[in-house]
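Late entry, written up from scratch paper. The run itself happened at the end of the previous shift, but nothing got recorded in the book at the time, so transcribing now.
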Amino acid sequence: MSGKRVIAIVLSVILDILALIIGVIVIFASIFGGNLLGALLAFVIVLGLMIAIPLVGVLITKDRPVRINENKTINVEGFEEKHLSIKEIKRVASKYQYGFYLGKTARSIINQANLVEKKINEAKEAVNNRFEPNSITWDRYMGVVNVAADTAITNLDMMARRISVLDEKEYSTLTNPIKHLTHRESLNSGRLEFYKENKEYIDRGIQDNEDMFNRLDTLSIELRKSADNSTKTDAVIEDIEEITSQIKYYN
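Output as recorded:
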């Protein structure tokens, strides 16, 4: 039971008690004063108030049906023509971070937005320390890391845009069979499928970025080793390129 409904019930009880007390006083005063018509009228008024007060409380706190918005597009207001910055991505996701259905996904986006620059900078530092700047090997490794950085941030941008078209309350209504019984207009399998597809896309993007971060960590670790392990680092670079291509395909 919501806090607003509890408050309404308590107030209704208090007002009913006050109405009853006042009514009893007026009725007895009318009876002892010989005014039977006044006593009857007071009784009717008190009875009416005791019925009306709880009804008003119920109407005020009644749950409204969720209005399904079919016209949302995958754009964040004010950012339609450009990529979101890391700060903007976190701001968009933060609106959902405490939700039951979208909270975990939103927190993952925020966490990755906080990590992406750190992971990229560590990998770049490792490349710079291992290879001569502007050498062929340096160019190759740094090029892959730069593309990985752009791809991971673009992936976060798309995840933020997709989650921005979803609504926690609407998602709850669409997926809760009990609420479906009371909100018939929310029964829309197409809309529910839209939510599921977008959430699956976001979750896949989160996993792809996670794989990317893990490979970048591995690359940084291997490049810091003093021994010649070019076979391992080349394999990691190929993995990063593969993940990058996979993310670009979905975006």
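The first helix runs from residue 3 to 32.
(Scratch paper discarded after transcription.)
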